[in-house]
């Protein structure tokens, strides 16, 4: 059995400092801790969900340093020093974000499990492209799977949000 | 002054605010003090004898509290139950343990379980368990598995045949003797993976003091799980509480009682610690039930003028490695009884052979048996139309049951409650511009372009179901539904329901029912579901039953409350009971409309119960519990029309248009109905074009990740044009029928019919799903249509 290299100290903990929705979070974590587990279990923000293990479903989508990322495909240590936004941070002072309102008005969710990731991706999409066509919206959310809605009302919701946010 | 109705309005959903803001309570969100984590060791072999398990290294690993194997737990953990024991089928229910004892029977079969103080450490320890397997030959394909000499999964199930079920109505022999034309076809209704975005999971907590156990879990039917789990883990039913709060999709896969949740419950009892387990996606694909998987041999007998005389089918249904909760009934009762579809087929016969194989169990998946039937029926109609050189729409209309003929008893014995099939078809044809499309198809053909038009006219049995009928088929319990409707002293209302929506919106639609019946605002009604500690025994949500059956129960309960309210109002208004009517949300004296009482005023009087408040001798309070047993199934129906274009270079099938006309009777919330239709159609399209669960000859699941199993994204999914017709159910208290599964029951064959239609001029009459580009490409080359 191969000897364990003294340098490969996989058990060593690393200090991670992040800002999530404007609040600081600091913890000592294993290098292999996924960012989504940091968000859910260390920071206690369970709005971001896990739906797969191959980066396909997008339920774990959050904003990191101004871009959408799939937090299941990052380690928490990679996010050290980052500024993160999750679904919990979208509504400000009890007021829903226009994207959240649009999903509500247009029945853009059914079971709700893909919704936080879908909304965060839509948030980034509309930042990059405030006037997307239906096709651009569909491509923009092609990394987020929904099994309930058939996407039509999600596209409608994002379109409506774009209108309101212009 | 008339008040606008809330029943029938597209009210915004009450459940949305928490889901939109990340405040849902899904099972993996549950965190309890002292909670520990379970992880399973799963067999890497599809069929293997377990010779030895050495868990010593795992037990010593950091953070590990315990490791258990099947042998160690078999006397304390009961076998996984099958709750649909179909009669007269030579049914054999082999013993299948939550943790494999002597044999592993599919790749993913749980062999041992580790409990540790963190998820990561539990997974680490799983890798430290050493198992000595004796690998055995495998049986994967259901037709091969029944052959003599095929590897046997269980000693007491010869030829792996778990049942042999037959159905016969009318004189099928005569039909085929008199046939002027016969159409024969072999179909494969391929295996699918339900893929709710939330995987399964459970958190169990046992209290040594009160000997009560609470299990939070991903369930579509908490009481059913409570009943079945109590037997498996030895906790009395009344001391077990199952709580299923938010569930991230089910589609049937969370109905069933699996071994894993029982193991979690068992662990919490053993360790007196709360224990959590949540599947990852790979486990979900390996070990959560799959759907469909039929090999079907079907024949249709007809006259030259297109009149269908009879249909017979022989089906090999793959059941996987054990009999899951409902798995015997899905490919038999829910399939065979629907083999005449919306047509007048006077003779129907079918035989279904249920086969065990070294794959994961197959059980109800959205549509559950009905898509497997509707696909056959409507594909055969198209094959017949092609054979007779008749238009597909015309042939359907010729054979439809007519509106005036309802209720109509079909050859299989079902009594369809109401329908107007021709109206739905004509509406769909008008919406899609059928005649113009046929012209366009001809023009494009002349240019070497391939446009196809596929019609799917379906009817489904849902609103499961009348208990006497259901029990006669061997289903474990009746399929009534319960509710308690409670009007509080302040006039607010709580509806406790045995239905358990997991995306279908009943927290809103049930509030709409109660608001309409009791004259309150939707905001004043709270709908509670999912917690066995709070609701009366409920049978749960599947089979498109929640709106008709659970909704029906709520309507009946509200009407009883209104009747009591009427008596109280009469007393308060000092009028005779006969003079009190309920109009525009208030109890009023006939002819003296300003003398009115609201339900809130009546409620407070019922609790105050004093002189001048409650009629003498009347029980105080204003709440009713009702169990509603429907007198029949309900039969939603419709027609979908799909237009596809086949790329002559690549074989890719692209949906250009998809029109759906569905009739689910009265609609409580049209926005929610449309959402259900969209989602169901998408899954049906996915079956037609993209999805297939594939095992290799050694029993390895090749589609065990979302990178391999092609669930469509927003790019592959087309837009839908939806319409409705409204044919109420005459026996349902609300006239509603249910609509959750119509999409999957209609869509696959709409797409398949369209693709075949695009190629039928070259002699193509059938292509098995999924219609992969390479399959179509090969046909194009063979038929000289390729570019």
Fold and architecture overview:
Chain A has 166 residues and is of the alpha+beta class. Chain A has helices spanning 35-42, 98-105, 115-128, 134-140, 152-165; strands at 13-20, 23-30, 61-64, 67-70, 83-85. In chain A, α2 crosses α5 (152-165). The termini of chain A are far apart. The model of chain A is unreliable at 4-8 (pLDDT under 50). Chain B is an alpha+beta fold. Chain B contains 21 helices and 28 strands. In chain B, strands 3-5-1-12-9-10-11 form a seven-stranded mixed β-sheet. A five-stranded mixed β-sheet of chain B has the order 7-15-14-13-8. The mean pLDDT of chain B is 97. The chains are: A alpha+beta (166), B alpha+beta (787). Chains A and B meet through α2, α3, α4 and α5 of A and α1 and α19 of B.
Dominant shape of chain A: globular
Fraction of residues of chain B in helices? 25-40%
Name the chain pair with the biggest interface and residue counts per chain.
A-B, 58 and 56 residues
Strand arrangement, major sheet of chain B: 3-5-1-12-9-10-11
Please describe the biggest sheet of chain B, giving its number of strands, its sense, and whether it closes into a barrel.
7 strands, mixed
* Count of alpha and pi helical runs of chain B: 21
Give the CA-CA distance, first to last residue of chain A: 63 Å
Low-confidence runs of chain A (pLDDT<50, min 5 residues)?
Answer: 4-8
Number of helices of chain A: 5
Relative strand content of chain A? 15-25%
Beta-strand segment tally of chain A: 5
Portion of residues in beta strands of chain B equals 15-25%
Q: Provide the residue-averaged pLDDT of chain A.
A: 95
The N- to C-terminal Cα distance of chain B equals: 68 Å
Given helix and strand content, the structural type of chain B is alpha+beta
Q: How are strands sequenced across the largest beta sheet of chain A?
A: 2-1-5-3-4
Radius of gyration of chain B: 28 Å
> Which sequence of SSEs, written as H and E, runs from N to C of chain A?
EEHEEEHHHH
Gross morphology of chain B: globular
Residues in helix, % of chain A = 25-40%
- SSE class of chain A: alpha+beta
